[in-house]
Each structure stands twice: as C-alpha cells, then as structure tokens.
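pls ignore typos typing on phone
glutathione + seq
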Amino acid sequence: MKLYDYFRSSAAYRVRIALNLKSLAPEHVFVHLRRGAQRDESYLALNPQGLVPMLVTDDGDVLTQSLAILEWLDETHPQPLLLPADPAERARVRGIALAIACDIHPLNNLRVLNYLTGTLGVTDAQRDGWYRYWVDVGLEALETRLAREEATGRYCHGDAPTIADICLVPQLANARRFAIDLAPYPTLTRIEAACLALPAFADAAPLMQPDAEA
Ligand SMILES: N[C@@H](CCC(=O)N[C@@H](CS)C(=O)NCC(=O)O)C(=O)O
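k done
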C-alpha cells in the first residue's frame, strides 16, 4: 500500500492513526502541500481533486477521501474495528466523525484560507477570525453532545477508539496550531488526552512524521 501524505494534513493524520491502530505500515509518499505539489500533473492524474490523503492499495485501487479510506480499512482489516456493529451506534459514531470532517474541516482547509487572503483580499487577522469562528461553532456543538450523551465513554463512543476519535484528535491539533482556546471544551480535550496516550495516535501526530517541518 502507498499513502500519499503530508505531515500537517489533518485528513491524512486520520488515515495515519487508523493504519497504526491496525498495525499496517504502508509506503509513504509525501506531497508538499505548501509548495503546491498536490497540483502537479502527475498527482492530479491520480487524484483530480488535488487533495491528500490518497491510498493506493496492493491491488492498485486508488482510494481518496479519508472517511472512505477509513471504512475501506475497517472492511479489509477488521482488527480492531473502528465502527461499532450496532446500526444506531454506527450512526452515532459516523455522525460525530462527519460533524468534524464535513462541517468543520472544509472551512479551514488550506485552499479555502488561501482563497480568502489571495482572491478576496482579506487580511491575515480576518482569515484567522474566520478560522476561529467556524472551528468554535463546530466544537461547541460537539462538546455539548459528547458531554451529555451516555454513550460517550473514555473515547467519543464507549471505551474503544472509533472513527469519531480519529477525526477529533487531528481537528484539535489543528485548532491548537491556530491558538484556539480549548478550555471551553473539557470533554473534547479529555478524550483527546485519552487518545494521545495510545501510541497509534501519538505516533501519527504531525511533528512525528518524517516530512515534518517547523
Ligand atoms: N474531505 C477530504 C479532505 C481532504 C483535504 O482537504 N485535504 C487537505 C489537507 S487536510 C488538502 O489536501 N489540501 C490541499 C489544498 O488545500 O490545496 C478528506 O477527508 O480526505
């Protein structure tokens, strides 16, 4: 397997965590997003979206979209499972993961932030305000539901990590990088700490990657 990866990509970070949890060690191909390598013709030929992560399987299938990759990994390498068996529980876990992956993350993606400053001409301070506003809107709602729902355990759902935690931890790492105050989110940071105590999460962190830069 080959994972097209970039240390700072929170979507790629999700896949790195899942691979570690499943004790899989693919070859890594680093796509330097800051230098625009995701828009090289050779990369676009494989993934016209020009985004990481991308996973090329041993059969040569080209998989894109981190959540699709996570579910493929769960179906092909079920130990340990990252989604519960019960349909209602699966829906809860997917609901938390999608609240992050669909409703928070896209608004703070590199290309969106670059469009704000490069095309719309907003200042860096306005761009950071945009980032903080949308991240806070998303995290507030997650904190509320995770704090009050009985299904929340050591992790987002019960006492084993799921795709919900796999989406949460990279999003909080990203928030820290933008100096978001996480004090209002004690349940989220408690779950983050529990996850980061696991080597699979800690080893997938951006600064632990071979392509990490200051
Ligand atoms: N929904 C996609 C998001 C992928 C994504 O946005 N990747 C970012 C890095 S986190 C990227 O490649 N950005 C390149 C760019 O903005 O030009 C997924 O979950 O895989």
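The beta strands are 2-5, 27-30, 54-56, 62-64. Residues 147 and 187 are 6 Å apart (CA to CA). more later
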